[in-house]
Amino acid sequence: MRKVILAVLLVAIAAMAQEGPIVNQSAGPPIRAWHQLLFYDGSDNLEYICWALSSQNVTTWARTDSSLTSIAVSTNVGTVTTAADHGLTVGSTVVVSGATVDTDLNGTYAVVTVPSSKTFTITTASVTDATYTESTLVTTYVGPRTTQAIWAVQRLFYTSTYLNKRAWAEGTSAANKVCADRATYAYR
Description:
By secondary structure, the chain is mainly beta. It contains one helix and 14 strands. The strands form three sheets. Strands 1, 2, 12, 13 and 14 form a five-stranded antiparallel sheet that branches.
């Protein structure tokens, strides 16, 4: 009986020793979220990785300054047209606000497709088919855009089908490149 009690005590003491002190989870380094865009070559090999901090300034396209041209809705698909290159990618989250003609257009949407550098589509269920151009219409986005010089760009080189080398644009991982220009950089 004493052997059993002693064994239980030893197991309990060993378990307590392994637990260690309570960890203060707020005392560690800040968590920094990174946004990655992956680009593949014709052989389905990963060719470029663009890296940027996920937290970025708010980008706004508005009818008042003509940076937002229109939002055309047809059969639950809204095509957003901007005056300049928007730099968004599939999956980016945008917020539409200021719609007064059909307030169902106001909301948060994921970018579904990017047909051109000045258009992207969103799914607009319950929104009446029309072209929306009211002066109060605004689209906002918080995150990195491919047209901003905030990226670190990495390229992967292959020999036959094997990864041979990884290199940074202009030889550095500093975030001062434009992801959309990834094919124009020298990699070392």
